[in-house]
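It is worth pausing here to work through a concrete case rather than discussing structure prediction in the abstract. The textbook approach is simple: state the sequence, then state the predicted structure, then interpret. We follow exactly that order.
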Amino acid sequence: MPSELDLVAVLAILFLATPVRFAFGFGNALIAMPLLVLVIPVEAAAPLVALTSTVIAGVVIARHGQQIHLRSAGQLVASSLIGTPVGILFLRHAAEQVRKATLAVVIVSFSAFCLLRPPGEWHWPGQPVRGRS
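Step two, the predicted structure:
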């Protein structure tokens, strides 16, 4: 059973991660997951981050829904329909050490990808490619 100190730590982590999502449109899980798994099990941290992200996305959609890039959103929904069941199976059947190691590899790999990619070679959907407007 988590203690009151654990609850305070979880709320503080979510409080730290949420503004990042509002400011940049991503990053909630990137900040929250590695910190949350230090306090609570991955089985609890993953749905908590997903729920928090869903609530944040709902607020953003309510405020800025007219600016959504529908093609990109459709691609995200389609990939989520595949990735969610795979992730659930992984959470249910993989050992905790394997889950934590996989989480670390994914976070470090994506961070390295974003930091080391050549400028203009890859861009976020809806963002102009350098040299084009």
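Step three, interpretation. Helices lie at 4-24, 28-36, 42-64, 70-93, 96-116. The chain is about 75% helix and 0% strand.
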